[in-house]
Design goal:
The complex is a heterodimer of chains A (about 110) and B (about 110). With about 110 residues, chain A is mostly beta strands. Helix content of chain A is about 0%, strand content about 55%. Classes of the chains: A mainly beta (about 110), B mainly beta (about 110).
Chain lengths: ~110, ~110
Amino acid sequence: AQTVTQSQPEMSVQEAETVTLSCTYDTSENNYYLFWYKQPPSRQMILVIRQEAYKQQNATENRFSVNFQKAAKSFSLKISDSQLGDTAMYFCAFCMNRDDKIIFGKGTRLHILP
Amino acid sequence: DGGITQSPKYLFRKEGQNVTLSCEQNLNHDAMYWYRQDPGQGLRLIYYSQIVNDFQKGDIAEGYSVSREKKESFPLTVTSAQKNPTAFYLCASSYLNSPLHFGNGTRLTVT
């Protein structure tokens, strides 16, 4: 069975700093998708970034980028120039190609301090 | 505007009563999902459906039931057999392997 592990339950960084959130996953599949979702205090789930396993290039979205290491089954999220609005729970998620079941990690609560 | 609507936002029930959570989408997505969120547990998959009139159990389906009679609707019933039903419930939909679109969630409290 596929699993997603986020080893950092909670993190705090100063505003404008760079922070990296860790995610590892376990699968025997070769083709799959990985996602990072953000859940602010409003509890609305927001897609941050998406990575297809067949793409070697790391995905980026403005201040958000990933370090995708397929062999190590690692998918970390880097937030550059962190802002107060980045304070949220961040969830790593995994999805295989052949079905639509999407598995989430337990999340990392990120606090951006002024 | 296209999106997913979950209602109600807050729901209160007495122990022993069944309760149904509504989820409607107008995104024309084939797949729909129900997740449960508890503190420190992340999102756990209850049921998902990839097509009308078909659905699969997720990791924590016991005590829950669903139906998918229409593409747009995927209601979740929390039965009296669910031992610890108080939680935040999120409905989502997607098309193929596209990212999930989430509703705003329903907070269910059972006393």
